[in-house]
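4.2 Preliminary Data

To establish feasibility before requesting continued support, the project team ran the inverse folding procedure on a target of 224 residues. The structure was first converted into the token representation described in Section 3, and no sequence information of any kind was made available to the design step. The complete token record follows.
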């Protein structure tokens, strides 16, 4: 029963997050958390633009609250906004911003968009970044362009827990453009990085014979 409850809660969280992203398609959202409390259902939206998510006089929040009540049969949904201070270290926000730039300025300047995003990520302190933009850009033939800088892990424990991954898309006249962003977070400890330390040589005590002390003029009182 406990396992079934956990699975149901996770599935509800996935449906709520998908619904909110569909309701706010152009806004950069990093993460959406859902939890049940004694006072009702709490939904936390983490974004770099809280003002746009809230809307004028809270119009977006009011609309989302009513939609959650109607669609998911929530009794008392409460929506909170969590602000992401460093937007350039969130792969989801960076991918959404790239998609918005492609929609607003077209695919002709996709290289400038990719290099600008990559530079901002490294300037924010990331250890490495990889951005892939795939689709019919700039010609009618589908291609995949890769923008990368720094050091980034692609497999293993570090890639799963210390590299932020996100996938997004932009719909243009030429078709759908896929965007994949991977950011290696600052301060990541790499298990394969070896640090060489110089050996510490311990000095062994020197044994001095009694006859040697006499030869150097050490008196008997000092030796005792």
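Position-by-position output of the design step:
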């Amino acid at each position: 029963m406990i396992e079934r409850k956990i699975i149901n809660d996770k599935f509800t969280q996935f449906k709520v997050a998908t619904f909110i992203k569909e309701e706010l398609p152009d806004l950069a959202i990093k993460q959406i958390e859902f939890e049940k409390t004694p006072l009702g259902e709490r939904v936390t939206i983490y974004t770099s633009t809280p003002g746009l998510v809230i809307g004028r006089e809270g119009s977006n929040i009011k609309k989302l609250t009513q939609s959650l009540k109607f669609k998911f049969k929530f009794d008392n949904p409460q929506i909170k906004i969590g602000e992401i201070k460093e937007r350039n270290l969130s792969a989801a926000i960076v991918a959404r911003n790239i998609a918005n730039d492609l929609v607003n300025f077209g695919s002709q300047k996709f290289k400038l968009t990719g290099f600008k995003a990559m530079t901002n990520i490294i300037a924010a302190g990331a250890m490495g970044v990889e951005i892939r933009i795939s689709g019919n850009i700039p010609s009618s033939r589908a291609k995949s362009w890769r923008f990368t800088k720094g050091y980034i892990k692609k497999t293993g424990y570090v890639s799963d827990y210390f590299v932020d991954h996100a996938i997004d898309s932009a719909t243009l006249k030429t078709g759908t453009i896929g965007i994949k962003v991977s950011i290696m977070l600052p301060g990541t400890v790499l298990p394969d990085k070896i640090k060489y330390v110089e050996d510490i040589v311990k000095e062994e005590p020197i044994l001095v014979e009694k006859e040697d002390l006499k030869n150097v003029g050490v008196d008997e009182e000092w030796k005792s």
